[in-house]
Design goal:
8 helices; single chain; Beta-lactamase
Length: 300
């Protein structure tokens, strides 16, 4: 009897060790992880599933679009999602990520160049501001002046900063993206895809500061002297208009048409929507947001 009890106890211990070190030992779905290690499939975070009365989405004007579940990365909708198009100012999400890898938010920057075009945060030559202030100016007001001030301060040169942007794109698995400048100006060698930009957005919002900034509807900031004020209003008008929208980034140029990346959270479920080459980015995004939450269910 003692021997039988010992044998049963030994089996339990061995089984526990096998499950701990080799989760694939368990029955059920499994996936291959890093270096061939087997993990149990996203057991506690299943991908969203279509509802029983699933309906096709409404027509959108965007040339390319994608909707992903932010938690699992699962694609819930695609339209030409891997078509190479001009990213316009959605590029600034990459600029923000790269800037924060080299500069701290409280680092001071002296403005050495300005822009006269409308898409600026209103910097003047000689202004001394923090990196965080520039991030607000770039991601809320889509300031091109802020993007160049960041690039010039967080790398030895603009060219080297752009190199870092492309290196970061490779690390994120953005296989069909190339950046030519930190602001997203149209360029024959600049391109991205809705698929890649969804990856970029998913990575960007893991940074608490970026997530906070892109969700800001409006804000007034100052330079270090306290004499210069920057009145910043978010270009993304869906913030405060569509329930659950938490920003991310707009983009618009003559070549790109209208672009928009949007993050929306409802009942603790978060999706990322990307529309590129749209004639009405806000309407297209609203359609996809509402359609997704109506046509998918998240199993707890």
């Amino acid at each position: 009897m003692i021997f039988i009890r010992f044998f049963i106890a030994l089996l339990i211990v061995v089984s526990g060790i096998a499950v701990f070190f080799y989760p694939g030992f368990l029955k059920g779905n499994a996936r291959q992880g890093i270096k061939g290690v087997t993990f149990v499939a996203e057991k506690f975070h299943p991908e969203p599933a279509p509802v029983e009365n699933f309906s096709e989405p409404l027509e959108i004007s965007a040339k390319s679009a994608i909707v992903i579940d932010n938690l699992t990365g699962a694609s819930l909708f695609e339209k030409n999602a891997k078509a190479r198009l001009l990213p316009a100012s959605t590029t600034k999400l990459m600029t923000a990520l790269v800037a924060l890898e080299s500069c701290s938010p409280n680092q001071l920057v002296t403005v050495s160049s300005t822009f006269d075009e409308p898409a600026t945060m209103g910097l003047a030559l000689g202004d001394v501001v923090t990196v965080e202030t520039l991030l607000y100016g770039m991601l809320v007001a889509s300031g091109n002046d802020a993007s160049y001030a960041l690039a010039g301060s967080c790398a030895p040169s603009i060219e080297e900063f752009v190199m870092k942007m492309n290196e970061k794109a490779k690390k994120l698995g953005m296989e069909n993206s190339r950046f030519a400048n930190p602001a997203g100006f149209d360029d024959i060698v600049e391109y991205s895809t809705a698929f890649d930009l969804a990856k970029l957005a998913k990575a960007a919002v893991t940074d608490p500061l970026i997530a906070k900034i892109v969700a800001t509807k409006s804000i007034v900031l100052n330079d270090m002297s306290g004499t210069r004020n920057y009145y910043l209003a978010n270009v993304n008008r869906l913030i405060g208009e569509v329930p659950g929208v938490e920003g991310i980034k707009t983009g618009k140029t003559d070549g790109a048409q209208e672009n928009l990346i949007t993050k929306t959270t409802r009942d603790h479920k978060t999706i990322i929507v990307v529309v590129l080459g749209s004639k009405d980015r806000f309407d297209d995004s609203k359609k996809l947001i509402e359609w997704t939450f109506l046509n998918y269910r998240w199993n707890q």
